[in-house]
Amino acid sequence: MIIKVFDNKISLGQAAANQAADALRGAIQKKDRARIIAATGAAQFEFLDALTSLPGIDWERVEMFHLDEYIGLPIDHPASFRNFLLTRLINKVGMKHHHLLDGEQDPAAVIRDVGKALQQAPIDVAFVGIGENGHLAFNDPPADFETEEPYLVVTLDEACRRQQLGEGWFNNLSEVPRQAISMSIRQTLKAQEIIAIVPDARKAKAVAACCEGEISPLAPASILRTHSNTTVYLDKNSAALLTSAVPVVSQG
To answer: How far apart are CA 196 and CA 19, in angstroms?
Structure first.
């Protein structure tokens, strides 16, 4: 795992977007298409703004899969991750090939259909984040490191639900859904490249646990250290609790 630290979220997002764009262009040149996994949430704002502004990406040849979505949340709700991806990525670049997780439909049917499409070919690059509780996608601790199912129905812990409230997506904790559809840990790790975008001081404790602590279901994103091609992008605030024992590439 490579860790890169930047002075602020904007430079972090731009650098991560440059790496992501290179991966997309390379896959399209080699295979005539690219398959990606896209994350959502406030941590992805600057990254997606930068990525969708970069030239030379043939978005009509990009196929996108959704990382996670709440169960029962309408698509017109501000917290809907489908709404997020449509607004900040899909409609912005004219992406024609995408597989969204519809949390308003039968979860078993959604998991079956999107999972079947996902497993038809390798994923070139996955864009992910790390939650305040160390979660990867909506796999809260203790995460399931063993299942081979592509998607799961998961129950969100209170720390995860409070993060969503704190980011301003909901008016109070009772509004935050208790269940979601999430890509599994093992499925995420099958991506040929993983780019994790993790800004903000509120992520510092989780970053330290996942980058320096034991690789454990209690720190779900720690599993990224077992992947051969993962880059974690931090700002100086999210990196604040890391020690010199971790190889960090500092950039402005």
So the answer is: 11
**Which DSSP symbol is given to 191?**
S
Q: Would you state the pLDDT for residue 140?
A: 95
Number of domains in the chain: 1
Q: Which two tokens stand for residue 114?
A: 């999107």
- The answer to whether the peptide bond before residue 177 is cis (omega within 30 degrees of 0) is no
Per the structure, the complete domain to which residue 60 belongs is given by 2-250
Taking a C-beta distance cutoff of 8 angstroms, is the pair 140, 154 a contact? Answer: yes
Give the C-alpha separation, 73 to 86, whole Å.
15
Average pLDDT by stretches of 10, the chain with 252 residues: 91 95 97 96 92 96 96 93 95 96 96 96 97 94 96 93 85 92 97 97 95 95 96 94 64 50
Buried b (16+ CB within 10 A) or exposed e, 163-202: bbbeeebbeeeeebbeebbbbbbebbbbbebbbbbbbbeb
* Cα separation, 166 vs 26, whole angstroms: 37
d(CA 179, CA 52): 30
CATH code, 84: 3.40.50.1360
Whole-number pLDDT of residue 12: 94
